[in-house]
Amino acid sequence: MATIRTRSRTREMLLRLSAYLAILVALILTLFPVYWIAANSFKFDIDIFAVPPEWVPRNPTLKHYDEAFVQRPFLRYALNSFLVAIGTTVISVTFGTMAGYALARFSYPWQWRKQISFWILSTRMMPPIVSIIPLYLFFNYFDMLNTKSALVIAYTAFNLPFATWMMKSYFQDLPVELEEAAIVDGDTRWGAFLHVALPLARPGLAATAIFCLIISWNEFLLSLVITLTEQSQTLPIGIAGRVTQYSTYWGEISAAGFMACVPIVIFAFVVQKHLVRGLSLGAVKG
Amino acid sequence: MLQTGKSASVRRRGPLEQWTERHLRYLMLAPTVLILLALTIFPSVYMFYAAVHRISPNPDLPWEFVGIGNFARLISDPQFHVALRNTAVFTIVAVTLEFLLGLGLALLLDRFIRRLSFLKTVLMIPMMLPPIAVAITWKLIYEPQFGVLNEVMFLLGLPVQAWAGDVNLAMFSIIVADVWQWTPFIFLLMLAGLASLPVEPYEAAALDGASSWRQFWDLTLPFLKPVIAIALLLRVMDALRLFDLVFILTGGGPADRTKVLSLYIYQVAYRFADPGYAAAMSLFVLFVTIVLSTWFMKRMRLAE
């Protein structure tokens, strides 16, 4: 017995060591690309093209930030991204929460609940490229191309089903008794939702909102097709526009690309508890 | 289920309030259903309509009805076949790699560093970044002349490559970038799944002297099956619509080696100005996606 234990202990030690090593490698591989774009955003052009590469910027400069955000309209793009993301999130979370609650709590005739749930989920599966042509023709018809409202409408199509499903699973997890008690005490059904269920669901709301924000902030394809003017284009499109066939403005796009990542990463660390829970809840429970 | 509006202590309520209360189950659902109907049913119907027409780039010209002409083109369009094959290769290879790496990493972290949720968040960073920023980052890394990957190759004494610009490595380069961004997603889902495993079966297995390999195979994997199913489903759906990475990294080249379906549809619709044919292709993609996901969800009994 004793020999077995010592042998397994050395084995365990070795295992532990290689596990730490593997995790360390994963961390380096995860972080290096992010570091690299940040590092390059602070280098002069000549240092970006240096061979061998400059691992740490020797002459750090804010030149590219000035180019991107002062001389070029990246601030405008970022503001557009922000407004569109907020608009989409507010609409999706508001209606998604109500629908999610209804699907979690009410009964419907003719198996409606199952059918509607499934249908809502299935709309999320639609690849964006599929709806892009009709949406484009639609916005063109109503003269809405190059507007932020068009983007909000398009993004809502993808975020609303997601919000509905997240909130549905969240409400299903809450005990129904508290709402019942409120109704017995004379509150209306709507009142019970508003005063009892909604406050309890705040972490779920937070998680859902975070995901809607991230998805809208990152979206590329729809924005590429729907917007062509500086007044309406979002940050991802602004960045892509600086990768041209003839030259790529590395410093400038590094600066803008890094700035597009920063709010998301800060955000993620601030809300990491909700993020993990939200993701596992939303995805694991379908 | 709750009874609506029949509580004993209903107090003075106006008729509007009573009506609202009685129909609340429909009122709460209505906005979402209406919005989604407008944003999905309308485009789908419109797309069917577009798919059977030849649409001129000139908006003043009427659409010309061509019946199944656009669909017939799919069968004989070699570019479409290439796009189909590229999408299949990308989806299979990328999702497999992401799954293996994500699961492995989750098992390691779950077993050896349980408490460090900070580490978890760090490892999750790639999946939250805008795909466009990811694409730019990897473009910079792959750059043949001054890119850092070739520097590493050089330091290791390996031959430098053109990566995203090389006919044989372009798809591989796209896959690596995608794996970098999305392995964290699988990792996170697996971690959540592992955290919810029951303890008792493992205690019993340990008493029986089952090896950790056996425990993984007989207990962990079966328990994780629903989570694995969801994770794979979501990743496959996303892989089928890959766009941003190819758009920036290769533009579909070199020699169409990375031309995937969404990129080809985009090119047909906007560069070759042929939305009718693009709509037919979109319908094809939609059809494949629906068949795949419905089959998968039915099989896994996910939509309940």
Automatic annotation (TrEMBL), chain A:
Q: Does the keyword Ligase apply?
A: no
- InterPro entries of this UniProt entry? BP-dep_ABC_trans_perm, MetI-like, MetI-like_sf
In the record, the note on similarity to other proteins reads: Belongs to the binding-protein-dependent transport system permease family.
Q: Which residues form the ABC transmembrane type-1 domain?
A: 78-271
What topology does the record note for this protein and the membrane? Multi-pass membrane protein
Instruction: Supply the source organism for this entry.
Output: Sinorhizobium americanum
Q: Which Pfam family is one of those matched by this entry? A: BPD_transp_1
Q: What is the lineage of its organism?
A: Bacteria, Pseudomonadati, Pseudomonadota, Alphaproteobacteria, Hyphomicrobiales
Q: Name one GO cellular component term.
A: plasma membrane
List locations, semicolon-separated.
Cell membrane
Kindly state which keywords UniProt assigns to this record, in alphabetical order. Answer: Cell membrane, Membrane, Transmembrane, Transmembrane helix, Transport
What this protein is called in its record is ABC transporter permease
Spell out the PANTHER family in the cross-references: INNER MEMBRANE ABC TRANSPORTER PERMEASE PROTEIN YCJP (PTHR32243:SF18), MALTOSE TRANSPORT SYSTEM PERMEASE-RELATED (PTHR32243)
PROSITE patterns documented for this protein? ABC_TM1
Q: Which domain of life is it from?
A: Bacteria
What is the predominant subcellular site recorded for this chain?
A: membrane
The residue ranges crossing the membrane are 20-38, 82-104, 116-137, 205-229, 249-271
Write out the GO biological process terms.
transmembrane transport
UniProtKB/TrEMBL annotation, chain B:
The record's annotation in InterPro entries points to:
MetI-like, MetI-like_sf
Domain ABC transmembrane type-1 stretches: 84-296
Alphabetical GO biological process terms = transmembrane transport
Membrane-related topology note: Multi-pass membrane protein
**Coiled-coil boundaries:** none
Assigned keywords, A-Z? Cell membrane, Membrane, Transmembrane, Transmembrane helix, Transport
Instruction: Name the domain of life this protein comes from.
Output: Bacteria
Q: Where in the cell is it found?
A: Cell membrane
- Entry GO terms, CC: plasma membrane
Transmembrane region(s): 26-49, 88-109, 121-141, 153-175, 182-199, 219-236, 277-297
PROSITE patterns according to UniProt: ABC_TM1
* Chief place where the protein resides: membrane
**Which family does the record claim for this protein?**
Belongs to the binding-protein-dependent transport system permease family.
Specify the protein name. Answer: Sugar ABC transporter permease
